[in-house]
Amino acid sequence: MGSAARKPVLQGDPVVHSSTPGVGERVEREDIRIELASDPKLLRSVRALVRTYLLSADVDSERASEIVLGVDEACTNVIRHSYGGRPDGRLQLSMQCTDEAIVFRLCDSGDPVSLERCARREMSTVDEIARDGGGLGVQLMYRVFDSVNYSPGLETGNCVTLRVQRASTRAKCGDHGA
Questions:
Q1: How far apart are CA 155 and CA 111, in angstroms?
Q2: Which residues of the chain have pLDDT under 70?
Q3: What's the pLDDT tens digit per position in 62-99?
Q4: CATH number of this structure's domain 29-168, picked from the four choices 3.40.190.150, 3.30.565.10, 2.115.10.20, 3.40.30.10
Q5: Residue 77: count of CB within 10 angstroms of its CB
Q6: What's CA 107's distance to the chain center, in Å?
């Protein structure tokens, strides 16, 4: 896609970008990159896109549902915590399928996240997590994905990389139905 794909037809619509990685990114090949407003109403479209992407990579439907929930939780956290619920922020979500894994990368330019709030906690119940200050969604992401890596910016922005090994998805990466 050319640069015309970067201009939304309607304000707030998700924009699908070409597979060219951004400057400084260490991504071998992105299959999809979208940019969208930090508006919770757009998350339904994101969930549908992620699900379609996973199913086109032959991910089992039940496992795809878990992964969609994890990506949705990551997007929701950006909207709530990085942008304080404001719909005027921007999120970028990229999806990549390699021989080893399916990788989702979510970046924003909102307030940097505290790595302490994003740490994996070994707690057995929802009540324990709630008593410890919340973060149930973050813990869900740690259970859904094989690795979760947060990279807060120094002054603004965050990126979270969510990786699921292909062995746990039975996915066969390739042309995704093209």
A1: 8
A2: 1-29, 115-136, 168-178
A3: 999 999 999 999 999 999 999 999 999 999 999 999 88
A4: 3.30.565.10
A5: 21
A6: 8
